[in-house]
Amino acid sequence: MHIWIDARSPYAFEKIYSITLIERLLRQLFVLGVKKHVTVVLPLHLSLARMLRDDFLPRFSLEYSTVNSEEALYALVQAEKDAEQSLMLLDGDGIYDERVLRALLTNSHSLVIRGGNLEETPLAAFIHASDRKLLADNPPHLRQIMEQKSPPGWIEILSIDEMERYIPELRQTAVPMLLKLRQKQSIRAIEDEMYENTFKGVMDFIATYVYRLPVRELTRWLAPTRVTPNQITAVSVICSFAALPLFVMGWLWTGLAVAFTFIIADSLDGKLARLTIRLSNVAGHVDHVTSPVFEAGYYLAWGWYFSSGNFAAPPGQAGLLLFCFYGLDKITTSVFGLKYGRSLLDYQPWDARFHLIAARRTINFFIMALGCLFQNPVVALYVITTWMGVTMLWHMYRFALHVHRGRILERPQPI
């Protein structure tokens, strides 16, 4: 496949989270498996290499070529030597959801994807090699095809409203973004919308209403710097470990401060990675493995401190119960997700509503902070243990109910 990107619009070099739209598109294509056969059409006398960030070439070894020309894109496409390759046509000033690009890259027949507003929809087309001879006009002809209710039989028209909206890893439903940048004044609003699309759709009330906006501004502030998502992940892991001995020694306020820093960093690294296209599988695995391990350790540490190391005492037993309830709850939700490809936390509206107040680390830390504030943290431990037990039973009940009623959805398949 040969990918042509028309980057002659000045908006192709406007920045979203400190990355130009054309560079963002190149990064996305590389992440999706494209390593070569990319041609970028540029205005005369403009060098693409000078417009890329310093961290592009070391991280994204994408082989691309550039053409400086004022000719119509289709004329350039027709002049290429290998006319038997499939084509993918994109606009450099477009903002493309990963799901849109994946659909084009994996399709087996000619396809054009259109957005809700055709005037603001960038070119998103895949032309199969066998259909290249049927593309008898220039690329604007594709836009005319998009407007037709009955397109010619050789090409399919797909609306983004018809595409899969549910994103399992983020537990949220969002229409894929397919937007052509038309004015600089809209960049801030677009950045905010992109941020919302990277935030998990179902969170506890503290994440939803307290630190959602601060994390957004931290992400915007860090995007142009040399700070990497992996460095933020390292801070998160260090803080998650550091809180453990602090809780064991009874330094509750210090431990909670470090733990809340861990929570902010744990949210920030993913947002920064997704919005600047710097995802790391290793960092993601480290984060997902260490976070639940240390969280379980906090609960044992509280039981140890409040019982002076005697787990037979009531506070120690509460710590052990909290540890067990947490483990069983994680097993319940994880088995549901692995088996059915959909999170139990947002499977039905009631599941999503309950998750706002479910026993999770942020809410548990908040309850412990209240206990410390009112100088009775051991009572907070009993409250957390009780609420974790309720949360575990609720998830077990909902798991059994969904299975019994036969409502399990099939595993979502990418379009």
Descriptive tags:
415 residues, alpha/beta, Spore Coat Polysaccharide Biosynthesis Protein SpsA, Chain A, Four Helix Bundle (Hemerythrin (Met), subunit A), 2 domains, seven-stranded mixed sheet, two-stranded antiparallel sheet, 51% helix, elongated, disordered C terminus
Describe the fold and architecture.
- The chain is α/β, with parallel strands linked by helices.
- It has 2 domains: 2-167, Spore Coat Polysaccharide Biosynthesis Protein SpsA, Chain A (Alpha-Beta Complex); 198-405, CDP-alcohol phosphotransferase transmembrane (TM) domain (Four Helix Bundle (Hemerythrin (Met), subunit A), Up-down Bundle).
- It contains 15 helices and 13 strands.
- The strands form 4 sheets. Strands 5-4-1-6-9-8-10 form a 7-stranded mixed sheet, sandwiched between helices. A two-stranded antiparallel ribbon has the order 2-3. Strands 7-13 form a two-stranded antiparallel ribbon.
- A hairpin with a 2-residue loop joins strand 2 (15-16) and strand 3.
- Helix 8 crosses helix 10.
- It is elongated, with a radius of gyration of 25 Å.
- It starts with a strand and ends in a 10-residue tail after the last helix.
- The model is unreliable at 408-415 (pLDDT under 50).
Short characterization:
With 415 residues, the chain is α/β, with parallel strands linked by helices. It contains 15 helices and 13 strands.
Assess the beta-strand content as a share of residues. 5-15%
The CATH topology of the largest domain corresponds to Four Helix Bundle (Hemerythrin (Met), subunit A)
Strand count, sense and closure of the main sheet? 7 strands, mixed
How are helices and strands ordered from N to C?
A: EEEHEHEHEEHEEHEEEEHHHHHHHHHH
Unreliable segments (pLDDT under 50, ≥5 consecutive)? 408-415
* CATH homologous superfamily heading of the largest domain: CDP-alcohol phosphotransferase transmembrane (TM) domain
